[in-house]
Amino acid sequence: MSTTEQTYIMIKPDGVQRGLVGEIIARFEKRGFKLVALKLATPSKEHLEEHYKDLSSKPFFPRLIEYMMSGPVVCMVWEGLDAVKTGRAMLGATNPLASNPGTIRGDYALQVGMNVCHGSDAVETAKAEIELWFGKEGINQYKLASSSWVYEA
Ligand code: GDP
Ligand code: MG
Question: Which residue intervals define the domain Nucleoside diphosphate kinase-like in the entry (predicted)?
Answer without folding.
Answer: 4-141
